[in-house]
Amino acid sequence: MKKAGILGGGQLGRMLLQAAANYPIEVHILENDPGCPAAQFCQHFTLGDIRNFDDVYQFGKSLDVITIEIENVNLEALEKLEIEGVKIFPRPHALRTLKNKIIQKQFYADQQIPSSDFVITENAISVNTYTHFLPAVHKLATEGYDGKGVQLLHDAKDLHQAFDAPAVLEKMVDIKKEIAIIIAVDEKGKTAMYAPVDMVFDNRLNLLSYQLSPAELEEKTIWKMEAIALKLVKALESPGLFAIELFLDNQGAVWVNETAPRVHNSGHHSIEACYSSQFDMLWRIMLGYPLGNTKQILPAAIVNLLGQPGYSGPAYYEGLDEVLTMENVFVHIYGKVETRPGRKMGHITILSNERQELLYRANKIKNCLSVKTSS
Question: For the chain, how many structural domains are there in total?
Answer without folding.
Answer: 3
